[in-house]
Amino acid sequence: FEAEYKKSDDAIIDFEKHEWNTAKAFFTDHDLKIFGEPVMEDWEAPYMKELANIACKNGGVILELGFGMGISADFIQQNAITRHIIIEANHDVAEKARAFGKIAKHTVEVIEGLWEEVIEQIPNGSVDGILFDTYPLSDKELYQNHFFFFPYAYKKLKKGGIFTYYSDEEKIFGKVHLRKLQETGFEKKNIKSRVCSIKPPKDCEYWKANTILSPIIVK
């Protein structure tokens, strides 16, 4: 059973990716919207905390893709890490990330740009944990934008490093999901998960279930 995803089933995404870079980001205390799209909402906090703790289990250098409202970044900083690298495509959100970095407990480096265009700034085998939560910017990324990142996660992680991400699954990995991870190089025995309980509001546009899967993928 495939999950209820970040966008409703009738959604159509047709952004030029570089339009996303310069689009105005609208923040409130409860959400972030870009082009009117719900990029993040504060009900996600329990899930972001779990993903952050998974990514930071080994400490060390943590790579976060997608800053959003900074919820997961806050939780990452509460862990015993040495360095926090943030990749963020939208300029307004990247500015928020830079402001966050100035007051953060641990060293923060912000790399602005589409992850596809800047990921090679991260040396292979150099990070201890990765948290991936970017917004899908095309129909082909809808429900599965994390799939495209799997090969890069494998390359950038140290041996024994941990990869996690917004899974778009309610309770278990779908067959395609598992296959994509294994095709990348992750071994089946190192693909684990746990279920996170959440309480999205009834009017949430992109998630309806009261659970979401937290991936724990070890290289």
Strand content: 25-35%
Low-confidence stretches at least 5 residues in length (pLDDT < 50)?
1-14
Overall shape: globular
* Sequence of secondary-structure elements: HEEEHEHEHEHEHEHEE
> Could you describe the largest sheet, including whether it forms a barrel?
7 strands, mixed
Question: Approximately how much helix is present in the residues?
Answer: 25-40%
Please identify the structural class as seen in this structure.
Answer: alpha/beta
Describe the structure.
The chain is 26% helix and 28% strand. It is of the alpha/beta class. The strands form 2 sheets. A 7-stranded mixed beta sheet has the order 6-5-4-7-8-10-9. Strand 5, helix 4 (91-103) and strand 6 (107-112) form a beta-alpha-beta unit. Helix 2 (45-55) crosses helix 3 (71-77). The longest helix has 13 residues, at 91-103. The two termini are 26 Å apart.
Topology at a glance:
Layout: H1 17-22, E1 25-27, E2 31-34, E3 37-41, H2 45-55, E4 60-65, H3 71-77, E5 81-88, H4 91-103, E6 107-112, H5 115-118, E7 127-132, H6 150-156, E8 157-165, H7 175-184, E9 191-197, E10 211-218
Parallel strand pairs: 4-5, 4-7, 5-6, 7-8
Antiparallel strand pairs: 1-2, 2-3, 8-10, 9-10
